[in-house]
Every structure is written in C-alpha cells, then in structure tokens.
Amino acid sequence: MSERNVAPPDGVEFVAEGEGVREFRLANGLKLLLAGNRVAPVATFLVVYRVGSRNEAVGHTGATHLLEHMLFKGTPTFNKARGTQVAATLQRVGADFNATTWYDRTNYFETVPSDALELAVHLEADRMRNSFIADEDRRSEMTVVRNELERGQNEPMLVLDEAVYAAAFREHPYHHPTIGWRADVENVPTARLKEFYDTFYHPNNATAIVVGDFEESRALALVAQYFGAFPASGEPIPEVYTDEPRQEGERRLVVRRAGELPLVQVAFRTPAALGQEKVLSNAELAARAAQPPEVNDIYPLAVLACALSNGVTSRLYQALVEAELAVSVDARVDQFRDPGLFNVYATAAPGVEAARVEETIRRELERAAEDLGEAEVEKAKRQIGARVAYERDGTHNVAMQMSEAEAVADWRFYKDYPRNVARVTAEDVKRVAAAYFGEEARTVGHFIPKNGGGANGNGSSNAGRGGVR
Q1: Positions in the chain whose pLDDT score sits under 70
Q2: pTM attached to this predicted model
Q3: What is the CATH number of the domain that holds 17?
Q4: Residue 455: inside a domain, yes or no?
Q5: What's the pLDDT at 1?
Q6: Which terminal residue of the chain, N or C, has fewer Cβ atoms less than 10 Å from its own Cβ?
Q7: SS3 assignment, position 22
Q8: Structural domain tally of the chain?
Q9: Same domain, 184 and 281
Q10: Range of the domain at 107
Q11: How far does Cα 461 stand from its chain's mean position?
C-alpha cells in the first residue's frame, strides 16, 4: 500500500491535491499543505496567518509587524529563562528561520534537517497560542521597529512609495504602510497587541505548509498532535469590508526631502490577484480561488509590466535609460488579496527634471495599448517563466511562494500561475493597457531633492514591495 493511501489521523481530512501539493484540513479549521521533495534531507515548515496590515486601523497600524517581532520572545516552553528561547533552540539544530509581515499576511518559517521537523512543528504550534505578549518585550521591540522605520525614511524611493499608496488608497487599509505610522508604533498599548494576537492567531485563520523531505504520515501526525490541541477561535475572525471607492480623477503629490536625484512614481488602480475589483469575505475568496474566473486581467498586467521594464531591450529601459533620461526604471503590478496598483518607478538622471521622466513614461504606456507586439509579449512570458522557476528552487522558496498564494487566493494560484501566464496573448496585453491606464485612475508622485543632498537618492525599485521583517 502506498503512503498516500494511508488514512490520515483522526481529526484530519484530505481535501484536494494537484501537481505535487496535497491539501488537508484539521477539525479546528487549520489548513495543511504538503509538498514532498526528497532532493535533500531538509524540510521547510511555514505557518501563514491571514492577518497583515490590511487588518489594522489608525491607532494600531504596524501591530501585525510588531507582534511578529514579539513572537520571537518566547512561550512558557520556549524561553530564555529555560535556555530554550526560540532563536537559540532553532540555531542548535542548524535551522534557517525568520518571519515576515505584509499587507495580506504574516508568516513564520524554518528550514530544518528532516529529523528536526517535529521541533519546528512544536515551536510554531506553541507560539500560535502561547506566546508571551509582555510589556517589557513590547518596549524593547518597539525601539527595534522604530529604528527599522527610520532607516526606511532615509530611502527616498520608499518614502515616495509610501506617499503614493497613501494617496491612491484613501479608505482601504492599503493606505497604511506595513511597518505602521510612527506614532502608532511608539504608543500602541501592549493590551491592544494582546487583543490583536488573541483575535487573529488561531488555527482557523492559518495555513501550515510542509515542503521537502518528510514522510506524509509522520507530518500529518505531528501537525495533528501539536496544532490539533487548539480549538478554533471562539468568535468569527473579523473581516475587512472597506472597499476603496472608484477613483474619479488624477491624484498628484510631491515629496521634497534631502536626496540626490529626482524620483518619479506613476500608479494606476488594478484588480486583485483573482481579478476581482471588490473586497471579498474569506468565504467568498475561498470559493473564487477554488473556481477561478476564466478571464483574470492580473496575468496580462503582469506580462505587460515585464515587457515594459525587464531587460535592456524593454520599452521603458530604451526610452529612459538608453536615452539618458533615467538611471533606472521598473514596472510591476500588485498581486494582492484586494485591488492594488500597477506601478512604474524611475530615478531621473542627473540634470533631468521629474516632469520629463513622467512624460516619457506616460507616452510609453499609451504606446503599449496600441502596438505592443507578439514577440515582445512572448519574450516577457518566457522571462516570467524563468523567474518563477528560479523562485521555486529549494524548499524554502517553494514554501514562501505557496504562502503568498494562500494569502491572496489559495495554493491553486501558485500551482496554476505559469500556465495562466502562458495563455496571455498580445491582444490581452493591449486590452489591459487601454483599460487600466486612464487618467482618472492615475496617481503620480515626484520626489524632488532638496539642496545639500544627505540621502541616497538613487532609490530601489523594490521600495516597499517586500515583506517587512
């Protein structure tokens, strides 16, 4: 009898499978994904919680990120006094571990030798419900987070990106940066963090992911043993229901700070990862993820972003960098749980005004809707395929990509992504360029350096676009 024919333990139900991923569900609502890979004797264990900065409001922005830091401070089982603190315990078995926070999720993960999988499962289960949320830990971690925030404020592109998102989203919580506003980070009460923890850190608001070298029956038994001990939350997990109203005109902003070069960011409102233009409840999102729509504009938008800025022959690179109007340019589309933005970031060349860079960007976006050819689209699709393959190399990378898919849709989004990109045609790309790049949906930000320099103005095209740690 094959291992996959062995019945799962009591309290665990097999749900679905596809292309090497098997989904199970515990009686308490925990979702479990298993993806075997016997290439090396290691396994990555990851827990992703469906809580991020989209679940925050003024007064406790940054709470998710601050809690992420505090969950490394220990539990009654794993703590400094006993010599079993989280970091030291994992380091003793040679684990590679960390956690990140983003708009739609928080994840905790460790890659361990295969024979240490039980330790990883035990530790993550323990801090799901038993973490210390102590005031002294809040005070110490607040200073760490504040230093992180201050470092970000010295990155001009990050500052501009934060301002553009705050302007583009007036009502939806994507308005707030993941790290939080400084006053909230400094002043949020410990009791408020504890309330946040007790609201969202439950098995029915999480997905556990195991990738690598493991026996399925053993992994199922471990997760059932350690996570199955916790009940589902006593109250329903609070939903986000604030839709961002339709934008009805261009929004513009200017940031003037110490820096070296002008920066330009041009953003347009776009759909969510599954193509929807409204906030969905957890149940609605799960149903849509299980039966995704035939037409989803997020895929041609992703191809368009790649065609515009990936490589020295891309349109924006040729129009800006080769023309010596900019020193860097990048385009990307958000693939969030809720509707996001298509962004173009550019750093102007010395002596070039931001307005001239913006004008060139707008012209190239208009051209894309008219004459983007099949060859450019096919090249972009190959580039995305290569990047996806690279991002799925190794147990950690696979777990992280599955985690991102779970946060915005579910694991099928991860499974089907290469195939959905491959289906995109040149007509699809031209159609979305014409549909989404209208003036009424545009937000434009300029960073204008003050005289005297003082900050590294070349910026990073990744400004603000990765999980916070």
Answers
A1: 1-5, 452-469
A2: 0.94
A3: 3.30.830.10
A4: no
A5: 34
A6: N
A7: strand
A8: 2
A9: no
A10: 3-227
A11: 16
